[in-house]
TrEMBL record, chain A:
Gene behind the chain: atpB
Protein's UniProt name: ATP synthase subunit a
NCBIfam families referenced in this protein's UniProt entry, alphabetically: ATP_synt_6_or_A (TIGR01131)
Alphabetic keyword roster: ATP synthesis, Cell membrane, CF(0), Hydrogen ion transport, Ion transport, Membrane, Transmembrane, Transmembrane helix, Transport
GO cellular component annotations of the record: plasma membrane; proton-transporting ATP synthase complex
UniProtKB/TrEMBL annotation, chain B:
Membrane topology listed for this record: Single-pass membrane protein
Name of the protein this chain belongs to: ATP synthase subunit b
Complex and partners: F-type ATPases have 2 components, F(1) - the catalytic core - and F(0) - the membrane proton channel. F(1) has five subunits: alpha(3), beta(3), gamma(1), delta(1), epsilon(1). F(0) has three main subunits: a(1), b(2) and c(10-14). The alpha and beta chains form an alternating ring which encloses part of the gamma chain. F(1) is attached to F(0) by a central stalk formed by the gamma and epsilon chains, while a peripheral stalk is formed by the delta and b chains.
Protein purpose: Component of the F(0) channel, it forms part of the peripheral stalk, linking F(1) to F(0).
Length: 262, 181
């Protein structure tokens, strides 16, 4: 009860700002740099959790899977069959391990955005989506060069169109394939997570701000918090969808590089 | 805590969310590289292997089932053939047995008839022989009786000739008639 009144009386900052995403370091001795913040710790936790989960559930694989093994296999099977093979074709199987790793990394990191007591996704810092997008970028260009040699770049930018319209199309293709792709990948994921966190902040802190401003606004504060819960469910959808979209787009770019005809 | 944080934030210039922090890029790259290394090296190849093993197991199982099915069909066919053969055999044996039984019955009947004929014939013969011997005995006995009687009567007649004359005459007459007969 006292705890609650303290919380209610707390002077919460409103409106939330970009600075809310940049939390201080969490060294126990109060040092300040950017190597050991909530965000970086969460990334390591995600990596550790995924590794532990897969190693534990796949330590002794059996023909008739246990529940855990089945779960791990379903995740891999989903990405392998529904993304890699569906998008790229039979040769997509060799990209399935990377795509699954990518999918799990994004999914778990995204999920921190709505995990109670954590509620901040590392993916809301553009550095991490940017790294992943850069890997995708290098990968699809590398795959294209390996498949077609230097002619890949001609493949990639020259659409199957009448010669007259090519001067118009080729710059567009270069722009969209080699300049926009990595940015759109990184920014799409980052912006979704950033906006999601911001939305939750606005509704949560807004509730406090209103109840602090005027006790009569309490019902609206309550509504605001109820909406926070509803938005958390929406966030969950966005989290899964963005992990899926990032993986599918990576697979799609790889497929474009492997295709014989553009 | 909040004061400290605000102070720290005020001290630095405001962050631009679209500019990545280089420390985070390093952390992200290293963390993701570690994740990729472990999963791609140790986990997913194992999974592919398991999938393959599972496919093999299922296909092997199907093949084994097919073989077993074929074998079972062959056995069934064989049993059916054998059963049909056995049926024919049984019918044949039954017919033979029936024919044998008929033959035996005929034999027994014939023998029995023969036997009865033989017994009847023997009886007849015996009867005839007995009759013969009886007749022969009777003849001799009748002669003796007749002589005895005649002797007696002749003895008596000497005492009372007149009384017995009639009797002797009658006896003689009887003998005559018996001998004539």
């Amino acid at each position: 009860m006292t705890g609650q009144s303290i919380v209610l009386a707390a002077d919460v900052p409103f409106p939330p700002s970009v600075e809310d995403f940049y939390l201080p370091s969490i060294y126990p001795w109060g040092q300040h740099d950017l190597w050991f913040t909530k965000i970086t710790v969460l990334v390591w936790v995600a990596v550790a959790a995924i590794i532990v989960f897969f190693l534990m559930s796949y330590r002794k694989p059996q023909l008739v899977p246990t529940k855990k093994q089945w779960l791990a296999e379903s995740i891999y099977g989903f990405v392998r069959n529904n993304i890699a093979v569906d998008m790229i074709g039979p040769q997509g199987v060799r990209f399935a391990p990377y795509l699954t790793t990518l999918f799990m990394f994004i999914l778990v990191n995204n999920f921190f955005g709505i995990l109670p007591l954590v509620q901040l996704s590392p993916m809301s810092h553009i550095a991490f989506p940017a790294v992943l997008a850069a890997i995708t970028y290098v990968m699809f260009i590398w795959v294209g060069i390996k498949k077609h040699g230097i002619a890949y770049f001609v493949h990639a930018v020259k659409p199957n169109a009448p010669v007259g319209i090519l001067p118009l199309l080729i710059p567009i293709e270069i722009f969209s394939n080699f300049l926009v792709r990595p940015f759109s990948l990184a920014v799409r994921l980052f912006a979704n997570m950033f906006a999601g966190h911001m939305l939750l902040l606005v509704f949560t802190l807004g509730g406090f701000a209103m109840i602090n401003a005027n006790a009569l606004l309490a019902p609206i504060s309550l509504l605001s918090w109820v909406l926070t819960i509803a938005l958390t469910f929406l966030e969950f959808m966005v989290i899964c969808l963005q992990a899926y979209v990032f993986t599918v787009l990576t697979a799609s770019y790889v497929q474009g590089s492997l295709a014989d005809e553009h | 805590m909040i004061d400290l944080y605000l102070a720290a934030a005020e001290g630095a210039e405001p962050h631009n969310p679209i500019i990545p922090l280089w420390q985070e890029i390093v952390v992200g790259s290293v963390a993701f590289a570690v994740l990729c290394f472990v999963l791609i090296k140790f986990v997913f190849p194992q999974m592919e292997k398991t999938f393959q093993a599972r496919v093999d197991a299922i296909e092997g199982g199907l093949k084994r089932a097919e073989t077993a099915q074929a074998e079972a069909n062959q056995l069934l066919e064989q049993y059916k053939t054998q059963l049909a053969e056995a049926r024919t055999e049984a019918a044949r044996i039954r017919d033979e047995a029936r024919a044998d039984a008929e033959g035996i019955r005929q034999d027994v009947l014939a023998k029995a008839r023969e036997e009865s004929d033989r017994i009847i014939a023997a009886g007849n013969e015996q009867l005839a022989a007995q009759r013969e011997s009886i007749v022969r005995e009777l003849r001799s006995e009748v002669g003796t009786l007749a002589v005895d009687l005649a002797g007696k009567i002749v003895g008596e007649a000497l005492a009372d000739e007149a009384r017995t004359r009639g009797t002797v005459e009658r006896f003689i007459n009887d003998l005559d008639s018996a001998g004539r007969r």
